[in-house]
Structures are given as structure tokens and as C-alpha cells.
Amino acid sequence: MMYAISQITTLIGAHRYGTAETNIGFVLTDSRSLSFPEETLFFAIKTQRSDGHKYIPDLYNRGVRNFVVNRDYDIPTDLPKSNFLVVTDTVEALQRLAERHREEYDIPVIGITGSNGKTTVKEWLYQLLFKDKRITRSPRSYNSQIGVPQSVWMINNQTELGIFEAGISQVGEMQALQEIIQPTIAVLTNIGQAHQENFRSIREKCEEKLHLMKDAQVVVYNADDATVSHCMRKSNFKGFRLGWSMENPDAPLYINNVETDDENHETRISYIYNGFAGDYCIKNINEGGIENSITCAAVCLYLGMSQKTLAERMPQLEAIAMRLEVKQGQRGCILINDSYNNDVKSLDIALDFMSRRPDSKGRSRTLILSDIYQTGLSDEELSAELLSLIKSRGVNKFIGIGKVLKDSFAPVLCGASNDILRAFFNTTDEFLKSETFGNLHDEVILIKGARIFEFDRITDRLELKVHETVLEVNLNAVVENYNRYRSFMHPDTKLVCMVKADAYGAGAVEVAKTLQDHRVDYLAVAVADEGVTLRNAGITCNIMIMNPEMSAFKTMFDYNLEPEVYSFRMLDALVHAAQREGITNWPVHIKFDTGMCRLGFHPEKDIDELIDRLQHQKAVIPRSVFSHFVGSDSDDFDAFSAEQFALYDAGSRKLQAAFPHKILRHICNSAGIEHFPERQMDMCRLGLGLYGVNPRDNSVLSTVSTLKTTILQMRNVPAGHSVGYSRRTILDRDSLIAAIPIGYADGLNRQLGNRHCYCLVNGKKADYVGNICMDVAMIDVTDIDCREGDSVEIFGQNLPVTVLSDVIGTIPYEILTGVSNRVKRVYFEE
């Protein structure tokens, strides 16, 4: 649903500065998640760690024109055609807008709260109900004061059922969330210790959570929980109390039997609801999952699902992925990295995961844990909980990092158990330097810590690469080439810079940082792992995945990466994966095949079915539609390029006409930017030109990468003697031969050997002689004034990379991307 900016101004009670008329379809609070600037309203929110107002200039340069700001913000005068909506509190304004939006829809809405299990119940309810209703639900764990309004905003005219989480951490927060969600069905999963620090008791927290049920028609809860039952008795709730019980046969939903079959990894649950008996089976579910499944069953039965349908769908439930990363470690270790959260309940789940892994057999089980904050427990109570957990889960070695663990838990563990190896450290640095760290081997290691302890340094610790061959990367040259192509473009045309294949060998992280500093609109990589590397390095701008793998959809969702979609099979798989994760309106880039005959939808034959499929789902939304020129680098192919463009133009216009939001159109690559200025459209893609090679004529622009090495050793070799493997080069004179530490394992192509090409030593040409080896090459320096340790240029500032590619009969891309990762990159700015 679109709102006029004037309408939003009224709905949130703002004072508006600016007169530009526009429609808003997207709200944004995190500048890193920008996808549709033209229809986006940015709420500048202040937190303890950041202030959203400081990102407004950058967002403006990226196309955003509508901002909600606090009264103390000085409205800039240099951002024309903008609207600034001034309010007392931007968070409250966001909540008020979502509340008004929710009131537009008279539909059933399920609101879910509790200490643990909210996301699982939400996702399982979706899996159970999506065949019957069009559902809008919270993306992943959007359950906060900011996340809930963004979730509710996603309700649209197609929504038949809403499912939203509501999480709180202190008294007074649930009222705002209740007013936004306005649930007709309230669900309480459980009450535990998570976020207990701001409540005087578990009961107080339970009472706060139950504010969600105000005005609901029904509340679903575990009637066997004494705290919950007490709070329900005290409440004045007037609706239907659907409490399920394993103890009380008179409960609305009575669970009369739970039977687990360990051999087949399944559990059968028998129940009586409204006097009718039924049962269902769930597979590979732990104890917490059993309770969550009963909660889901209660909701489904209340909504009218038949017992037969429930029994058919329950076994199909898929486990909700926790943020547990399992990696192969050094010295026979398996690493389990849990970055989801750091409380006692999640620790229990992670330990359970470790204990049930088949690769734990024959390996010691090790827990590396940091101090746990905000539990609401005393140090003594927390220590008792930890001791119980690690003993019950079979932990063999405990490594504690943090002052609380060292001071409080160490004495408890030492006094209670002699069969658990243990070590305690004040800091992560102290642990990394210890003998304990160096002695880890043949262990399954669960690594779980609060973010401030930077446990990623434990899992991602790198070994120093020692190599006398280096690739020097001139970041100034990157900027010069970027600006050169920018100068050919209309100011409003966006630019995608290709940083795939490790930025054509130059090093994607540093190149991406430089481009981000110069306000690039998009970055593009080949696969999701490349995008993850950029995100982990602090790259926040939009990232396009050009060759997405279906196994990496979850990674793309977790790291805010936007995939290319080129087939119906991929589209269906991506939509299914997004729906499983609770994703709505994930931006994708539609690829047309207009003549490359590689990947893509046909703009004529496939367009109607493509539009139909896109319109009948809400998981993904087209952000752009693009194609590739086959021959923009040559005038000989201009006629074919014209045919390509006509085909693309018709198809992309038809796609745009089917959707109300702006879909970016782009077909020009580096060569096309210069050769077809009339076809630049909304966006262009810059690849080889960024790295210093003009694809139109192979001329050198500003040189970005220079591959250099050094002379290791020199020796005199007489005429008639051979050099290298297989005696391929026979010297025709007495010669001075130098060995350099670079070979085909570093990216030096073997076809360059035997005098087919040369490098530069002190500015002079030195032929490669003999076959190029894996790690070493030999060069003829007979007529060159040089010595051991002198520098050798393989390609770069003085020896264009095109010289090497022409000799081999290939393209510069292959030479640039062929430089091995073992070659150290050195970055500099002049």
C-alpha cells in the first residue's frame, strides 16, 4: 500500500519542511538496508550507540528524499527536493504510523510473546497455515520497539493473516507493541530468565508480557506453568482462555500422551480438544520443540484446522535454523560458532546441538564461553545453572573468558568436578596468547560469547602470509577510473561496480571500501561468500549477487545480499527459502537473456509467466531488471547490440508496467557506458574499466594493480646448457640467469615461459627462460645491471597487463583474476 507523503505527515502528527510530492511504500531505519530509495521514508533514530541523523546526507546521495527527524535536528539547506517530517520522537512516530496502518485492515492477527520460542512458533505457524491463507509475518526476529512497526507495515491488501512477534526487555514496553499489532489471537510461548535484569521478578515480567492480550479474542498459553496460570487468574481478560495442559484433563487442549521413538527420531503427541481426540507426529524435535508444537496446534485448532489436516502437516515442520555455524578447524577440530545470543537458554540449546552432532564421537567436547550479561541472576545462581548445563551435556573441557566467570564460576567448577578440564582468562587476547589455545586438537568446540569479547577472532584467526611476491594496488587509480566513467554518465544514472573475483584480483575489501567512500550505488560480486566477506569487513552499501547458488539463500538473507534471478527454478527456490525465513519484499535483480545465450529469462517468451509468478507471492520484489550486451566493445556488433536493446527495452517496460514501484533498468557495461550513452538508462555496470583497462581498445587507463617480486638468486650458465624442467630452453650464449619467487601457483601462466614473454628488471626487459615452475620462474638478466634482492615487475605501471594477455591469446580479466590469494596485497594511496 502506498501513502502520499502529505498523508503520512498527518498520520504521525509531523511538521513538514519541503513540498515535493511523492508516494511512500517502504520505511527504513537502518541505512545499510536501503533498496528502494525513490519510495523510502527514512526514520532517523537515536540509540545509545548511533544517531540515524548522521546518515541522512549519504542516503540523500543514494536517492532518498523523505526523512523523519527529531526536533533538535538542524534541517539542511543543501538537499533540494527533500521532505523533512519533524517530530518529537522518531521511534514513536514510526510506531504511530504502523498503528494507523494496522487499523486499515480488518484481518485476524496473531501476536506472539514469551522468553524463548517466539520465532519458532511464528515460523511453524506459517508452515502450518500458508496453504490456507496469505500471510504477512515478522521477518526473522523483528520483535523490538523498532522491529515490530516495520513488520506490521508489511501488511497489504493481499494479507489474510498476520503473525508478529513482540519482545520486551523492561516494564512499559508491551503497551506500545500491543497497540501496533492489535492481535486477535495472543500467544505466550513461555516465561524464562532472558532479559530478566529490568524486572523485579519473573511474575512481573509475565504480567508485562500479558499486556499483549488486551482486546484479543483468545489467548493461548501453557496452563501447567504456575507463574503464567497465576497471572492469568489475576487478569481481567474477557476473551477465550485456551490454556493447554499435560496435567488437567479439563483444559481446553489436554495433552494426554507424549511418546518419543528415539530410533526413528520422532515424537507422537496425543490430545483432546473440544471433546474430540486426535494426535500428530513431529520429527527430530527436542523438548522445547514439543512445547512449541503444542502451542502451534492450539492456534491451528482454534482457527478451525481439522485434526486430519493438522496430523498431515505437523510431520512436515522444518526446524528453524539457529545462527550456529559449523566449520572445519585446524588440528582435527570442529568449530561451532553461535552468534545468535548469549543467555542461559540459548547456551542450553547450543550445548544440546553439540552433544547430538555425529562428528562429536571420538572427539572431546569443549565449551569456550564469555561472561553472560543481563540474566537477572546472581553470580551464585548463574554459576549453579552453568555447572548443571555443562555436566548434563557432557562437556569435557571448559574455557571461560571474562572477569565474572573467572572470579565466580571458577571456584564452583573446581570444587564440584575434577573430571572437567578448565581454564579461565580475563580477556580474549589473553586466551589467544595462551598455551591452552595452542593445544586445542581433535575437539568439537562450541564458541559462544557476548559481542564485546570479539570471539570472531578465535574462529577467524589468520596465519601470517610470508611471500616475497606482492600485488600493489593503487586505490587512487581505482577512484580515477571510477570518476572517468562517471563523467560519461548522466548525473542521475546509478552505477554498479563489479568487485567479484576478489575485485578482479585487486582485493575486494579494500576496493569496496574505497568505492563506498565515493558513494557508489551498488557493488556486485559473483557468489554469496564474496558478499559475506564484504559485510564482515564493514561494507554497508547495497551488494548484488550475480551468480547466486541455491544453497546460499540463507546466507544472503543473513547478510543483506541481493541475488540475481535468471530462471523459474531459481525464482521458486528463492521464494520458498524466503518464506521459510519469514522474509517479505526481498529485493532481487531480474536477468534477461537477449543474445548472450548464457543465463536469463527470455524477454518475450517468459515475461508473462514471470510477471504472474512475481505478482502472486510477497517474498521477493524486483529491484532491477538487466541484460548484457554481447559486443559493445566492437563497432562490428552495433547492429546486434541494437537488436538486443530493442528486445530488452520492450521486456523491461512490460515488467515495470506490472508493478507500482520503481524497477531500475540497466544493460550497459564498461564498454557500453562510453559507446552507447543513449542506452545508459537508470543504471550502468562498471567492470574491467574500473581496474584500468579500456574494453573498447585494450588501452591502459589508470593502472590499478602492479604484480611485483624480487630476485632470489643469480647464477652464470654457459651456452648450450638448458634451463628448467624438460630442457625446453637451450641457451645460445653464456647467460646470467635469475630465479624469482613466482610461479603458476601464484598466477604466472606457464605459456609465458621459454622466451614467449618478459618481465621488467630495473626497467629493462628480461625474458622468461625455461618452463615456469609452480613456485619459481627463471629470467634472463644477462644484459641488465641488477643484483639479488632487486625488484621485478611482472605487470603493472610500466608493463601493461595487456602485453601478457596478448601473448597468451586471452583477455586481461584472466591475468588479473588469476593472481593467487597467497600473493600478499599491498594497498596504497598517492
What does this structure look like?
The protein has 830 residues and is α/β, with parallel strands linked by helices. The protein has five domains: 3-89, MurE/MurF, N-terminal domain (Udp-n-acetylmuramoylalanyl-d-glutamate--2,6- Diaminopimelate Ligase, Chain: A, domain 1), CATH 3.40.1390.10; 105-316, UDP-N-acetylmuramoyl-L-alanine:D-glutamate ligase (3-Layer(aba) Sandwich), CATH 3.40.1190.10; 324-459, Mur ligase, C-terminal domain (Protein-Tyrosine Phosphatase, Chain A); 492-686, Alanine racemase (TIM Barrel, Alpha-Beta Barrel); 705-828, Beta Barrel (Lyase, Ornithine Decarboxylase, Chain A, domain 1). The strands form seven sheets. A nine-stranded mixed beta sheet has the order 9-10-8-11-12-13-14-15-16. Strand 27 (562-565), helix 22 (568-581) and strand 28 (586-591) form a beta-alpha-beta unit. Residues 462-466 have low confidence and may be disordered.
Task: Give the mean pLDDT.
Answer: 90
What do we call the CATH topology of the largest domain?
Answer: UDP-N-acetylmuramoyl-L-alanine:D-glutamate ligase
Q: State the CATH architecture of the largest domain.
A: 3-Layer(aba) Sandwich
Q: What structural class do the secondary elements suggest?
A: alpha/beta
Which residues form runs of ≥5 with pLDDT under 50?
462-466
Count of helical stretches: 27
Roughly how many Å is the radius of gyration? Answer: 31 Å
What would the principal axes of the Cα set say about the shape?
globular
The figure for the number of domains is: 5
Number of strands: 41
CATH homologous superfamily grouping of the largest domain: Mur-like, catalytic domain
Describe the sheet with the most strands. 9 strands, mixed
Termini Cα gap: 50 Å
Q: State the helicity in percent bands.
A: 25-40%
Reading off the top of the CATH hierarchy, the class of the largest domain is best stated as: Alpha Beta
Strand content: 15-25%
* Strand order in the sheet with the most strands: 9-10-8-11-12-13-14-15-16
